Amino acid sequence: MNRQRWIIVSLFISALVMICAVVLVERYSFKRSRKQPSNSYLHDRISKFEVQGIDISQHQGEIEWKDLSHPNPAKTIDFIFMRASVGIENDTKYQENWKKARNQNFKLGAYHYYWSNVNSAKQAAVFIKQVDLKKGDLPPVLDIEDISDVQNKKSLRKGLKNWIRIIEAHYNVKPIIYSGEAFYRDVLMPDIYFKNYPRIWIANYNKVKSPRISWSFWQFTDRMPVNGIQTLVDGNVYKDSQANFNKLFVP
């Protein structure tokens, strides 16, 4: 290889190394920025809500339940929703978390992450086997976030209704439906059943005053730091008063 060609190759390799370095730095910075905790819970639009809480799953790992407290000193954690099942599988930390949280007298609720390609009755059976609700617990929650690869939206909505019917009959309380605001509006609300559903929990992490469709609970962030939990968690508020919140409980 002559000198001129060697210089060209060297310059090319140097440029390639520099490009790779820039990409790595940008990706690292992006990941760090995503991991930064949100302080939106301190904002007036959030702090004005009387009833506040969090939701967790096995992804939060080991939790120091005795240390659990709201990051805003002026607020308390008034409720905790826990993932009990996902599709036809159990959340591996649910039973442990439920027992320990119960010992600390937190107001608790259980949710099911719905698999859109799996039979609704089978998923309801998994949730019922996993979850034993008592008087004073929060209603069960149906978490739906994905469309199906094997059925159209109308059939998906039919399956969701079936899950709700089975769960309501078993626990004698109307479930809560959780979803992202756009998903609920575009996929579920075309059906009058979901448009008029009375208990909706909406996820919207944008800096809005509140969700723009009817809601009872609002998940306003997925990056809230909570004492006693190593990971960031989902922060939630209840729309109405403590008195109305108390009316939701399992009879």
From TrEMBL:
Membrane as UniProt keyword: yes
N-terminal signal peptide: none
Any Pfam family hit: Glyco_hydro_25
Keyword Translocase listed: no
TM annotation in the entry: 6-25
Swiss-Prot/TrEMBL keywords: Glycosidase, Hydrolase, Membrane, Transmembrane, Transmembrane helix
Family to which this protein belongs: Belongs to the glycosyl hydrolase 25 family.
PANTHER family found in the cross-reference section: LYSOZYME
Entry protein name: Lysozyme
